[in-house]
Predict the structure.
Amino acid sequence: MDIRLPTAHLTLLCALAFAPAPLAAKASAPTIEQATQAYVQGRLAMAGDDYVVAAERFGTALKGDRDEIARRRSLDVAMLSGDMKAALRLANQIPLAAESTAASAVGDSIVALTRAAGAAAARDWRGYEAARAAFGAPGRGGESGQVLGVLLEAWGRAARGDIDGALALVDPAAGRGAAASYLREHRAHLLAYGKRWPEAADAYAAIVGAEGANVTRLRLSAVGTALEAAATDPKYRERAILLLGGGPERDPQLIEARERLGKDARMSGRKLADLVDSPQEGLALMFLRLAADLARERAVGPAINFARLATLADPALPDGWLVASDTLARAGKYDQALAALDSVPKGGGWRQIAETRRAGILIAAERDDEAREILRRYASRPDATADDWSRLAELERRQERSAEAIAAYDEALKRLPADSAPAEAQLAFLRGTVKEKAGDWPGAETDLRRAVELADKNPIYLNYLGYSLIDRGLRIEEARGLIAQAYAISPENGAIVDSMGWAEYLTGNYPEAVRLLETARGAEPSDPTVADHLGDALWKVGRRIEARHAWASAAALSPEPKLAEMIRKKLDYGLDVALASR
């Protein structure tokens, strides 16, 4: 069997939108006209993101003659809000025909998958098989549903104790591209569920080596199954230690796992990592992977649906709540994103991950004081890391609290582990930008030069230092050389092209300055500084009407007050008089 999962694969499986669970219906049934009006009002409320009103209106419509349509809309609302009890109840009330039409395929697929997830959570495997069969009915799932249907059947067989039958279905050779990746991953999960440790360890290690190097769950699964396999083959313990030493250096889960294994070298894999120990967890991971892939494709609505299905199948799985929160936040639904984080378990490094995400969502929601409280709490711990302090520093920098930002960057730099040149370069650069804007040029120059010393091929660092020097009239030739290096590395970056053009301008090469600055203007049309620079260069080559147009454009882009005043003088009196008046 050839199973495919196209790049645009999963959008066919999406449902529409989401919000709080339907409220209790009124005691008396509405008339047909009232039910229709309530349905329309619910649709309008959903369009305006007013989910409380939407839920109430659809609840009213449910009592009229538009029952099925209102139930489907109420299902959408319940999915968004995370009220999966209501979602499951509604899914079980919606009738499914033997075959879906093109118009109903997506909604019917979500209904069937909700039933399947709910039945699995209740260990109702007969109901699960009925829902799985409903999902596989003609017209549902589409081409992208092939791999999903295979995985649903495989985990159903696993639930009945037929691990060999499940593994026979999940054959990566039968898939292509993303489908093969799904099958490969779930083959490893099934082997772990069947406690076939050496095979599971080999399967996970192959995934980590090929495609999952930075996926913490897969790495920890590889470590955990290797530790279990070491009970019969000692070579697997060495592999576990090597695998645990890889991955993102400062990942909270990996840090905690390394510390725990360091304290207890004989720790079992099942205590160290969350290995798949139920069909519900396997199904939740399937939905979670779909959600994560859809989120990367910016299919936010479907991503939320699949994350919610993961939480329905296995509410104890932390990843589902995190992905649900991330996708809700991406859609601007901040309150719901924060609510999802409340369900993340506290142990295993998950609390810190959840709180870090919470701070990020609060910042996105412009609730900076709440975010600062969380970040300060983590930064004030005795075992606070460089990341804890750098997150706080970034918030202070964004709020233009220079002294606080610099102090936080100081602490972050102190806590960097040895041999962290890229991280040190980034922190030194960011601290330098804060010092430069605060008027401490000597301190800024020291930091910026340190960043360039540690990362001499980084065009952003080279350009910032070079432009800062040339803009102050300092060491022009050195500054031009730094900018030229940045330009050679990243000639398509509009900010760097602007710097290169400005360097040509300041060294008197006005025709070349115009050429470069016109290119920069095309790349950065909303940057008032670029437009101002172009106006100056055009003036110098005698194209004075065009210069005034460029300055007028810069003035319309809300420049900083000091630049705005200079642009006004250029428009009123021309470049030479404006410069003389500085």
